[in-house]
Amino acid sequence: MEHRLLEYFLAVCEELHFTKAAEKLGISQPTLSQQIRLLEHRVGSPLFQRIGKKIYVTEAGEILHKHSRNMFHELNQAQAAINEIQGMQRGRLRIGCSGNHLLTATIIAFHALYPKIELSVTELATEETKERLLSNQLDIGVVFLPDEDEQFHYIPLYKEQLRLVISDKHPLAQAKAIRLADLVQLPVAMLQKKFYVRQMMDDCCEQSGFVWKPAIELSTLESLLQMAKNNVEGGAILPRSYVDSFRTGAIRSIPIIDPIPQKDVGIVYRKDMFLCKTTDMFMKQLMQQFL
Question: What local confidence, expressed as pLDDT, does residue 83 receive?
Fold first, then answer.
């Protein structure tokens, strides 16, 4: 079975849309459809089915998807081992993270030492990072550490805390801290439920017996920061590490206490992944930054 046919198949599995998959692959939609039909002929079973306007992976397709994903993972591991022999003169490292600000210093230092290593950093929710690690779209993640999972190794880096971020013109701008019981009464903006930062806040409130709901839900840390800077009545809840990366007098970062919403942030990677020298060196530099 040709390597190229499996690449086409995995692209359709990921997009569940032939036109989008074709655009991603840089080929025409009719060519992609013809290649998928050829693959279905070779395996002797339909791999996709249409229900209305939607495309679904068949049971046979799910089986091929699982084994194809594993095959590409092993090929990448082989390439990583070969790069190890050749030294860190080329290669790539794909990283998912819960905030690009966590990696800025390490990326700059690593690129200065190894300029020919291609670094690709994607900001994702924790669960999205885990999914992409399993589907071989990422090599490592830097995320809020979830519960233990037998498929992953975790390396804690530091304990993240949430802060109330407000304008310097806000009535609470001079406050030294704010109790969680008082915070839940304020109109604040927060990330959507899929993000671990939001889940941290929700869990902390639930465990403390507070009923809480944000006044506004947004999808990026930057949009939350802008909301806090420009809204003198409300505020936003943001990770301390993100707020500390900005030196501006226009905002105030207020610690939340009684209790403190906090969670470990760390490195996550697959247990069956070959830790090549590139990955190992990046992880060591990242640990030196935080530990």
Answer: 66
Residue 181 near residue 210, CB atoms below 8 Å: yes
> CA–CA separation, 32 vs 19, rounded Å?
9
The two three-digit tokens of residue 1, written as one number? 């079975």
CB 141 within 8 A of CB 153: no
* 155-205 pLDDT tens trace: 999 999 999 999 999 999 999 999 999 999 999 999 999 888 999 999 999
Determine the Cα–Cα distance for residues 11 and 67; give it in Å rounded to an integer: 14
Quote the CA–CA distance of 50 and 58 in Å, as a whole number: 10
Compute CA distances 56 → 4, 13, 53, 136, 165, whole Å.
Answer: 21, 8, 10, 21, 44
Rounded to two decimals, the pTM is 0.68
Sign of CA dihedral 156, 157, 161, 165: negative
Tokens of 199: 């889940």
Please say whether the beta carbons of 20 and 47 come within 8 A. no
Identify the pLDDT of residue 274.
Answer: 77
Residues 81-90 pLDDT 10s: 666 655 555 5
3-state secondary structure the chain: CCHHHHHHHHHHHHHCCHHHHHHHHCCCHHHHHHHHHHHHHHHCCCCEEEECCEEEECHHHHHHHHHHHHHHHHHHHHHHHHHHHHCCCCEEEEEEECCHHHCHHHHHHHHHHCCCEEEEEEECCHHHHHHHHHCCCCCEEEEECCCCCCCEEEEEEEEEEEEEEEECCCCCCCCCCEEHHHHCCCCEEEECCCCHHHHHHHHHHHHHCCCCCCCEEECCHHHHHHHHHHCCCCEEEEEHHHHHCCCCCCEEEEEEECCCCEEEEEEEEECCCCCCHHHHHHHHHHHHHHC
